[in-house]
């Protein structure tokens, strides 16, 4: 009988596994973050972080925890591209570090913050590597480093395309779990029972382990992703057509090329701005419909996904 496995990249599933199962999370952090001091135990923290004093925006991250050495870890899963993605992640990490300082306190070194984000799309399409680490180093003397903040990004989509997972490699085993869990449990000559945390994580993917409310949230998550992708496609097509019209009006090939590029860029940026404002929930559906020249029914459908 075929098992009904949920995708671990979905928000509700990722949080269920890595936000509640300490042993799994500890192994995952030690593998992918590789902190200076290995993690032996963690304490989960409240997800919500403080508002930005300038615009009141709330930074909410998926999973936050500290270990016995007061190392601070942030784990996130991203399946939809956001404008200014790297800047957003930097904001999350910096806020986590800044929250350690009390008002009026001297700027002494604090506990390090490690941000690990699994991304199921590409953020650096021109770079072949899928594993990226960002830290603060002296440009001339890279061995000189400002300690305290480190960000690592795993481009799962790029790794999936490469395939060739080496199941003897613990990192590849977990990436296989994230990318293709249904294939992981059916692989010949691979005994998943030898790896208890991996086995437990895979068993937790079974739909029967989730409440009706969680299953509804899971389905809503993928509906929202599908809607976002469709909006992007529509915006791209509209921008493409508008660009061609501009180019044709100029009557020269150069005009067509410029128009296509401009239309594509403006349409894409328009979509990302709409997504951002839906997530913020500041303006009403009617205001957004008028602002972006979209039917109110479309805005209401998208809003139901982001404001639920």
Q: Could you please describe the fold and organization of this structure?
A:
With 308 residues, the chain is of the alpha/beta class. The protein folds into two domains: 200 residues, no CATH class; 94 residues, no CATH class. The chain is 48% helix and 15% strand. The chain has a six-stranded mixed β-sheet with strand order 1-4-5-6-8-7, with helices on both faces. The longest helix has 39 residues. The two termini are 34 Å apart.
| Euclidean distance between termini CA atoms | 34 Å
| Number of beta strands | 8
Residue runs with pLDDT of under 50 for 5 or more positions: 50-59, 251-265
Q: Count the helices. How many?
A: 11
Share in β-strands: 15-25%
Strand order of the largest sheet: 1-4-5-6-8-7
Computed structural class: alpha/beta
Mean pLDDT: 80
- Count of the domains: 2
Portion in helices: 40-55%
Identify the overall geometry: globular
One letter per element, helices H and strands E, the order comes to: HHEEEEEHEEEHHHHHHHH
Q: Indicate the radius of gyration in whole angstroms.
A: 22 Å
Sketch the major β-sheet: 6 strands, mixed
Q: What distinguishing features does this structure have?
A:
single chain; 308 residues; alpha/beta; 2 domains; 6-stranded mixed sheet; 11 helices; 15% strand; globular
């Amino acid at each position: 009988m075929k098992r009904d496995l949920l995708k671990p990249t979905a928000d509700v599933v990722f949080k269920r596994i890595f936000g509640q199962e300490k042993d799994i999370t500890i192994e995952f952090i030690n593998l992918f973050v590789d902190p200076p001091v290995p993690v032996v135990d963690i304490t989960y923290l409240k997800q919500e972080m403080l508002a930005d004093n300038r615009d009141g925006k709330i930074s909410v991250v998926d999973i936050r925890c500290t270990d016995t050495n007061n190392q601070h870890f942030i784990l996130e899963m991203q399946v939809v591209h956001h404008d200014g993605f790297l800047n957003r992640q930097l904001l999350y990490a910096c806020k986590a570090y800044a929250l350690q300082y009390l008002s009026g306190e001297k700027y002494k070194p604090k506990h390090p913050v490690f941000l690990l984000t699994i991304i199921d799309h590409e953020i650096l399409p021109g770079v072949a590597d899928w594993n990226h680490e960002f830290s603060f180093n002296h440009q001339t003397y890279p061995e000189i480093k400002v300690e305290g903040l480190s960000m690592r990004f795993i481009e799962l989509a790029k790794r999936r395309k490469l395939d060739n997972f080496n199941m003897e490699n613990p990192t590849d085993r977990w990436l296989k779990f994230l990318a293709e869990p249904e294939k992981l449990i059916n692989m010949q000559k691979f005994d998943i029972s030898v790896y208890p945390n991996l086995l437990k994580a895979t068993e937790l993917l079974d739909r029967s382990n989730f409440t009706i409310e969680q299953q509804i949230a899971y389905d809503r998550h993928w509906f929202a992703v599908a809607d976002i992708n469709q909006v992007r496609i529509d915006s791209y097509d509209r921008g493409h057509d508008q660009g061609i019209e501009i180019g044709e009006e100029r009557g020269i090939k150069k005009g067509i090329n410029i128009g296509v590029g401009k239309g594509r860029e403006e349409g894409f940026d328009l979509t990302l701005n709409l997504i951002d404002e839906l997530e913020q929930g500041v303006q009403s559906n009617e205001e957004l419909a008028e602002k972006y020249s979209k039917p109110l029914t479309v805005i209401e459908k998208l809003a139901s996904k982001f404001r639920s």
